[in-house]
Amino acid sequence: MFQIDFAAREPIYEQLYNDVIKLAASGVIKPGDKLPPVRVVAADLGINPNTAAKAYRELENEGYIYSSVGRGSFLTDKLSENSAQKRLITDAFRNAVMEANAFGAEKEELLRILEEVYR
Amino acid sequence: MFQIDFAAREPIYEQLYNDVIKLAASGVIKPGDKLPPVRVVAADLGINPNTAAKAYRELENEGYIYSSVGRGSFLTDKLSENSAQKRLITDAFRNAVMEANAFGAEKEELLRILEEVYR
DNA sequence: TCGTTGTATTAGTCTATTTAATACGTTTCT
DNA sequence: AGAAACGTATTAAATAGACTAATACAACGA
């Protein structure tokens, strides 16, 4: 269900965290859906259950899932298809702007490109 | 001359590496220009000379600078203001805009984010 | 010659991440 | 009631990357 890259700089628990958000964005999982148990995630990916649990813990801290002992972890409404998509899009766009800014791109040039695309 | 963020996930040597590319992209430094000695960079930023040297070493491996003992390190033509680097950035930005557009993002929202970053 | 500079080496410290090995309490199912 | 499933917690250890420390050497230029 989840995909991780062991060679990536991004920690595994953070990749899992983002995987949940992405799956929600693409509609593969929806509010109310049950996520696989941490032990299953760990077994599937060949990682430690603690690592999977850490991802779930942070997702719950952000209100994206709710967990209860003995029952499992479930998506909240906060991760509906639309809101998750929006989050992904704006984050990606913001990163692109910051990157361009860091490399000395002029605001006017970016505005020009933006207008060009939206025409 | 260089700016680093000690709290960032990105290693210092890599930040320095990117700083050089960014300064070249924005025209602050040009091909042939001498870079500050590793010891000066280290002293200015309060880091170890080895860390600064590592950044220079990788820049030289990529052909962005050339170094010679006793003389210093200098920008090559590969890091000119109007070459690949800048186009890469604007292309990345254009892709982000098109992506956001494809997902139905409002132009006004993107403009808001852009202004927010450039403030 | 002397100061500057890039380069190299070896060792050590530090931090975040991940694993390991259990254990506990709650819920669900039979 | 009992067993399995599940989230949660704890403590310890291992691992890897980044960074520092302390030197040393050789080339270059004034």
Could you walk me through the main structural features you see in this protein, from its secondary elements to its overall organization?
Two copies of one chain form a homodimer. Chain A is mainly alpha-helical. Chain A has a single domain, classed as Winged helix-like DNA-binding domain superfamily/Winged helix DNA-binding domain (Arc Repressor Mutant, subunit A, Orthogonal Bundle), CATH 1.10.10. The first copy, chain A, is built from five helices and three strands. Chain A is elongated. Chain A starts with 11 loop residues before the first helix and ends with a helix. The mean pLDDT of chain A is 91. The A-B interface holds A 9, 85-86, 89-90, 92-105, 107, 109-111, 113-114, 117-118 and B 9, 18, 21-23, 25-28, 85-86, 89-90, 92-101, 103, 105, 107, 109-111, 113-114, 116-118. Chain A binds a DNA duplex (30 and 30 nucleotides) through helix 3.
